[in-house]
Amino acid sequence: MKSSDLIRELCRKQNISLSELARRIGQTPQNLSKKIRRDTVTIDEMIEIADVLDVTYEQSFVLKNGEKIRAGNNK
Questions:
Q1: CA 64, CA 72: separation in Å to the nearest integer?
Q2: Tens of pLDDT along 16-25?
Q3: What is the DSSP annotation of 5-65?
Q4: What is the value of pTM for the model shown?
Q5: Domain coordinates of the chain in residue numbers?
Q6: Which of 34, 38, 32 is CA-nearest to residue 17?
Q7: Closest by alpha carbon to 72, among 62, 58, 51, 54?
Q8: Rounded CA gap, 7 and 13, in Å?
Q9: Which residues fall within 8 angstroms of residue 43, CB to CB, at 6 or more apart?
Q10: CB 54 within 8 A of CB 47
């Protein structure tokens, strides 16, 4: 699943429009819409989206020994 799909699904489940999400993260609806269309939302933006919607965002690599290298807000 692409980042753009994750954001759309999150908005649907949180009952929030993409335009409202854009405003909450300090972007214009047009700018966020372009990033979603192009699937160019950064990890930092994903973390910010998670923070403003009070959810956890996790992204990680898992090494063979079980160690995880994570990016996210890890609430």
A1: 21
A2: 999 999 999 9
A3: HHHHHHHHHHT--HHHHHHHTT--HHHHHHHHHHT---HHHHHHHHHHTT---EEEEE-TT
A4: 0.85
A5: 3-72
A6: 32
A7: 58
A8: 10
A9: 59, 71
A10: no
pLDDT in tens, 10-59: 999 999 999 999 999 999 999 999 999 999 999 999 999 999 999 999 88
* CATH topology classification for 3-72: 434 Repressor (Amino-terminal Domain) (1.10.260)
The maximal CA–CA distance of the chain, rounded, in angstroms, is: 43
Q: Which two tokens stand for residue 70?
A: 């994570």
Q: Which tokens hold the place of 31?
A: 């700018």
Bridge-partner residues for 71, per DSSP?
59
User: Residue 29's CB: how many other CB atoms inside 10 A?
Assistant: 14
